[in-house]
Amino acid sequence: MKILYNLLAIFLILTGSNAQDKKAQNPVIFADVPDLSIIRVGNDYYMSSTTMHMSPGVPVMKSKDLINWRIISYASNTLGNSDELNLDNGKNNYGRGSWASNIRYHNNTFYVTTFAQTTGKTYVYTTKDIEKGPWKEMSFSPAYHDHSILFDDDGKVYMVYGNGKLFIKELKPDLSGVKENGLDQVLIENANIPAGNDIMLGAEGSQLYKIKGKYYLFNILWPKGGMRTVLIHRADKITGPWEGKIALQDLGVAQGGLIDTPEGKWFSYLFRDYGGVGRIPYFVPVKWEDGWPVLGQNNKVPQYLDLPQSKGLIPGIVNSDDFDRKKSDLDLPLVWQWNHNPDNSFWSVKERKGYLRLKTASITNTFTQAKNTLTQRTFGPESSATTLLEISKMKEGDFAGLSLLQKDFGLVGIKVENGSKRIVMIETVNGNSKEIQSIPFTGNKIYFKATCNFKDKADLGRFYYSLSGKEWIGIGDEIKLPYTLPHFMGYRFGLFNYAEKDLGGYVDFDYFRLEDKN
């Protein structure tokens, strides 16, 4: 009998494990997808997010199951044409650009709104076709911080925004600006009260809903000595009175809102600061009790979710690229974003079939001021990227290669100095860059690799080169990949080429290959 019980126990463990393996796990996306806002239209889910200084901006993603997402569009091509956005005259847009977007669907139209400190404006993007566009842009001043839009049942449109002290304004029906003589008041004088008086980050990140006749407002706040916290207020009328409570304090998972499935399940989508990889999405189940959404399992963030298993981030969020284009293809798949506005006259995937040609687009001796660095997200727990460069057309003073981009960037590349080429690895610590290793090079082709380890917030990177693409040689030191607020973004793989002396040189990238090492 004892043997039978043991066999039964083993069977239950094994079948239970297999059942768990087929479920989604947190984090649902192990990559930098912060400030997420999600809606459901029929059986489809749509999500907008933040990429700040990247171009194009305000990415829009689609999913059938809340777990497996793919980028389908960008609401914004560029916020404008300024020195900061173009990396001109020593200026930049790091840590600014478009923040905390909000996605809504009303009367067969998709709305994505955001705001930008760079321009001091609030932006409204609309389209009837969220995948094919086109997107129409409207903007007005000022930039309303971390706002959320609600199309109410009475035909009115409201915007809630602010930090600690939260405000509400009524917008024009088409969202082109604030409505004259419409509702305009303080919504909640001190939204921090449920968490006490010792607050490091006041209630912000508003996401506003109307569910079964009641209004619900989600915010994040951060008590001193505590962690990022989910705060929920509710009211019977949009003008209040509002009552609030702490909804979740676990792992620092916070900032987001609510989404339901066609089957009637509810989840809260949130994100977590996770070091160098960035701010990564987590979901928690939601139950309704006494008219309140109750988040988590026993007030905790679960590892497993009652949702389908993830198939991985490749190819929906990140992807390899052989740069071989058919006529119907986009010049650049949507997984790519430029660091700031590109100068489109200095790159091509058509001048040489099967290659990305990056011409030197700016003269600088600072990598973070170099134009036309083409990027994709790094991802966890571990990932790597490899590329092959043809470098015969580089000029004196040119520098081209593969980077891990953040304020404390690292890179490996070919540098041309005094008529000779060198393989160079650079590390940046606390904003100070240093050449760690240099190796003479005489060929015209070179392979580079960058690896990332974000497991348990290790935040480590390493660079390699190869003459054959088979045997990899480490160069320089293992580097730290710290998350810094001046860039406010997870690390990015980046393909770069810039000039320190004269324009006119170029390199050809044969491919970019990602590997999920998990």
UniProtKB/TrEMBL annotation:
Residues 1-19 form the signal peptide. Gene3D superfamilies: 2.60.120.200, Glycosyl hydrolase domain, family 43. Residues 320-514 form the Beta-xylosidase C-terminal Concanavalin A-like domain. Keywords: Glycosidase, Hydrolase, Signal. GO terms for molecular function: hydrolase activity, hydrolyzing O-glycosyl compounds. GO terms for biological process: carbohydrate metabolic process. The record marks 146 as: Important for catalytic activity, responsible for pKa modulation of the active site Glu and correct orientation of both the proton donor and substrate. Its EC number is 3.2.1.-. CDD domains: GH43_FsAxh1-like. InterPro entries: ConA-like_dom_sf, GH43_C2, Glyco_hydro_43, Glyco_hydro_beta-prop_sf, Glycosyl_Hydrlase_43. It is an enzyme of class 3 (hydrolase). Belongs to the glycosyl hydrolase 43 family. This is Beta-xylosidase. It comes from Flavobacterium bizetiae.
